[in-house]
Amino acid sequence: MFQLSESQAQEIVDKMMTDIPYNINIMNADGIIIGSGRRERVGTVHQGAVKALSTGKMVEVWEDSRFEKKGTNEPIVIGHTRVGVIGISGNPDEVRPFCNIVRTTVSLLIEQRISLETLAHEANRKKAFLELLLNHQGTYSQKLRKEAAAYQIDLLLKTVVLYIKHYSAGKKPGKLLLHYPSFAIDEDTQLLVLQNSADPGPLIRQLLQDQPRVLIAAGKQEANIAESYRQAKSAMNVLLALRPASQVIAFADAEFLVKLSHATLSPVNTAAKLEDAADMTETLRSFINHNCSVSHTAEALNIHRNTLQYRLKRIQALTGKDPRNLLQLFELTQGLLALYK
Prior knowledge:
CATH architecture of the largest domain: 2-Layer Sandwich
Number of strands: 10
Strand order of the largest sheet: 2-1-5-4-3
Structural class: alpha+beta
């Protein structure tokens, strides 16, 4: 059962009393004052609140006594549970409307907090499930199959995983993704689990149409979701390393490059020497993607051919490898891939 903390209750009291010219008390489920315009009363038992909690009805006090001040005390009820009491000191006829306003405000705040905590709990549960799923090897247990079913995933079906970067949840595909099991990896990265079709093409085209900035990597159709995920993630690393014109990459088409990125072919990664020279890295990528064509690379980078030749020489000076030499370019390419493995 959720309850307001003393700091939350006092904050509500302080804000409400700027507009309401009466003392306000907020009591917890035990009738103890946890927020009050009279700070010295915090921590004491409020008798009117105890009565209101026991009856479930508003208690009105019409005369001041040693232990009670006249006023109204109304229970705060959340989901049929009495979680506290709102009390306002003064003539009941005068303060009754204010008591209703404060009680409604506090109830809404508590319900909002409960809703946020529920969402946070579900997000943590979903994150834990995804971590378990993406690290699972071998046969799926009945328990894991049951948990997966809650996310509309049938672990007996073969699966294609899409790894999507630069995804904006505020754009159109938010509704599109409701048709597929999806998981947020981080703020702009999503995983999609496709089981109804071996061809992710139609969905990919829709994603590209609605979100022009996304990068998409597809794993192969696999019986083990973790395997398709590893393939998609590795393919995405190739896409990020080489930055080709295409925004989509399939592991089936990039398997050699994935394996190349993990190969230890040299004790020194020559491409790593370009990490502090962004324009040199961009030039190398463009030169690779344009098949070593000087004219096409210069056009793509919007620079003069002589400027490109200077940059290629600069890359050679920084790395000791000449990108105009096929074998040395291959070594630079492997080093670039290895930076993103």
